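Posting this for the archive.
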Amino acid sequence: MTAENLESRSGIITARAPGRVNLIGEHTDYNAGFVLPTPIPQHTTVQLIPTVARTVHARSADMPGEERSYTLGEEQPQRGWIDYVQGVTFILARDGHKVGGFDLSLQSDVPMGSGLSSSAALEIALLRALREAFALPLTDVQLAQIGQRVENDFVGAPVGIMDQMASSLGRPGEALFLDTDTLTWELVPLPASAELVVIDSLIRHNHASGDYRTRREECERACVALGVKRLRDIDSVALGALEDLETLPDLLFRRARHVVSENRRVLEMVDALRQGNLDECGRLLEAGHISLRDDFEISVPEVDRLVEIASTQADVYGARMTGGGFGGAIIVLAQAGTGRRAAEQIVERYRSETGKPAAVLVPGH
């Protein structure tokens, strides 16, 4: 653990974890496929003081006056930010880890509902602090696995493990090439000749709501119809792989086609990054957006327009929506040194055409 992510003084343990933006590999993680996220500068920071009680007192600096308390062993979902805290202690206890009471304060500049993993940043930051406070024998990968189970088993969001792995293992300036089936991973340097831009549409989503869950169920139905356990089991590299899907009804065919083709795009993106082929990287981003928009149907008009505007900028290689969909942010690959200017031009044109605001998250001011 680096000093940046964890420190302890005067009985106060401070830990932090970043949000993430996914370069490519959307809705492939719960299909046991490949993903390629990278951390963003925005973080969630927690300060924790262990106590002798069996009670957790938590407050959020982002929601002034909102303080929540609960007793360990009596966690109950409340449909709010406290559920991520409750979920962590609930899963730790279920796994046999001994955690005492604590006072907790948290602060985050990772926008909620923007597709940048605000929940994973909270989970990993809290888990890092609890690991230090109670000497929990947990690896960084295990922290990510616990964070995913918090979402799946307590919060009720059927997410994959990408977000937590990116928050726990990611490093600035590198993309995390992750096989979500085996959890093998590798850090791939991002070319110095390019920079990433992230623009928030300010359209909010919720992974615990119905649309995200429906897409996962549709992928599961496609697996049943194809006689495979996971869509990963269809060879995503073979050029003839999509022919295996043609027996599916149209809707399931398009859902499965996105996942199979997106897995292929992740592998191609890794190769393009290693070769410094930024034009190819841009092409893959644009192809990924079209697939998410048309085959997986998780984009919205505001996000589509931001992507279209970004793609016309002279210094931009490509752009696409990022995150679970139904709102959130876009990611833009631009020439190094041009990201701030390009981002401001995109947001200004979007505002003038639609009358709606958008926010530049990366690069920061």
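The chain has nine helices and twelve strands. Residues 123 and 141 are 13 Å apart (CA to CA).
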